Amino acid sequence: MTTITSIKALEILDSRGNPTLQATVRLDSGHAGTAAVPSGASTGAREALELRDGDPTRFGGKGVTKALANVEGPIAAALKGRDARDQGAIDALLCELDGSADKSKLGANALLAVSLATAHAAANALAIPLYRHLGDASRGFTLPVPLMNVMNGGAHANNSLDIQECMIVPHGFERFGDALRAGVGVFHALRTLLDKRGFPTSVGDEGGFAPNVSGTREALDLILEAIERAGYKPGSQIALALDCAASEFHDDGEYHLEGEGKRFSRAEFCGYLAELVGDYPILSIEDGMAEDDWAGWGLLTDRLGRRVQLVGDDLFVTNTEILSAGIEKGIANAILIKPNQIGTLTETLAAMEMARRAGYASIVSHRSGETGDTTIADLAVATACGQIKTGSASRSDRVEKYNRLLAIERELGADARFAGSKAFRSH
Ligand SMILES: C=C(OP(=O)(O)O)C(=O)O
Ligand SMILES: [Mg+2]
């Protein structure tokens, strides 16, 4: 009933207009599962490789013809006849087929599209939602707190803001739907406020506004004002989070905030972030130091690790080998989870489990180049990790994930739990 009979791939477009892969896995029962892979802009150097064609005359080298051929060729041949319910064995076979440390032979995009589509196919054949197929009903299903990126900067917009993401965190609510409604209310209030102050209200890659503010503080002041104008309490109901994506402005051992005209040593940048934490209700800072500056990460964790969530994205790239080294050294206290950084669902779940055992939080995340695929919403609920980062409320590629979470909350009814403020209590 769940034996794989065929695998097909389709080149589709992501939210930046670049080609990406969608795979469909069919089973002998007649059921099928489809999934599409996203694509990052501020990628970590140690991410699994996204296979691109490199032909500059077609989509500037970003074509996926080779990855598509790998799905329909060697991957389909090897997986035909396998049981889609055995995700671990399917993913192990995918890794074995590729055989490289960074998935560069077949491409992490080819592998992930098939890995996720297999999970969807199995769930469909079993007639259960994906979160039930991936999760453990005995642990219960928990809706995550949304980390909503309302102000875009860095590699995600062409404005003056060096910090890549300024997010709102609606954690002080009883239900996911209430938290989302509050977050969206702030987004609308921020649009009105920016318009009033003469800023453009066009948006960046993740759907947040992208004004030319004078620096991080002006961005955070505007967001705090929007929270109040929307009728919510900053801090206790809606807090703030940052993704510095600091690897993007780390050069020659220094951190350069070009938009603010400032350069910092690692200790000074640590001090800059500590002052922000002192002055604003910031719950979480992602990539506050560059991925190759582990000494900086040590400083930052010593200074702020007991007060705020410190998230490794480019730092850990959803990779258990790198995460275990970080845990050993005691750096950061949370990991961002992006399935396409590692290439299979099983390896993604392994990173989340390793984090959980070490007391590190996991935040399931989109990429800046997205599709309508909503797998990450089910993944966040299935693992009860408590947090999801999937952009703002103004682009359908982001809204799809929020709408999927609303549907799950409705479906779970009285069994639906919301992670709320508890998601941040470990620090
Ligand atoms: C989502 C992010 O951006 P990208 O997909 O460009 O890495 C991020 O850095 O957390
Ligand atoms: Mg990041």
From TrEMBL:
SUPFAM superfamilies: Enolase C-terminal domain-like, Enolase N-terminal domain-like
Residues the entry annotates as binding Mg(2+): D243, E286, D313
Reactions catalysed, as given in the entry: (2R)-2-phosphoglycerate = phosphoenolpyruvate + H2O
InterPro entries from the UniProt entry: Enolase, Enolase-like_C_sf, Enolase-like_N, Enolase_C, Enolase_CS, Enolase_N
NCBIfam families noted in UniProt: eno (TIGR01060)
Binding site for (2R)-2-phosphoglycerate: Q164, K338, R367, S368, K389
Keyword annotations: Cytoplasm, Glycolysis, Lyase, Magnesium, Metal-binding, Secreted
Gene: eno
Organism: Aromatoleum toluolicum
Residues of the active site: E206 (proton donor), K338 (proton acceptor)
Lineage: Bacteria, Pseudomonadati, Pseudomonadota, Betaproteobacteria, Rhodocyclales
Cytoplasm in keyword set: yes
Pfam families xrefs: Enolase_C (PF00113), Enolase_N (PF03952)
Role: Catalyzes the reversible conversion of 2-phosphoglycerate (2-PG) into phosphoenolpyruvate (PEP). It is essential for the degradation of carbohydrates via glycolysis.
Name the UniProt record assigns to this protein: Enolase
CDD domains linked to this entry: enolase
Residue stretches making up the Enolase C-terminal TIM barrel domain: 140-426
Residue ranges of every copy of the Enolase N-terminal domain listed in the record: 4-134
Pathway: Carbohydrate degradation; glycolysis; pyruvate from D-glyceraldehyde 3-phosphate: step 4/5
Enzyme class, UniProt record, top EC level: lyase
Entry's localization field: Cytoplasm; Secreted; Cell surface
Gene3D superfamilies per UniProt: Enolase-like C-terminal domain (3.20.20.120), Enolase-like, N-terminal domain (3.30.390.10)
Cofactors (names): Mg(2+)
Family: Belongs to the enolase family.
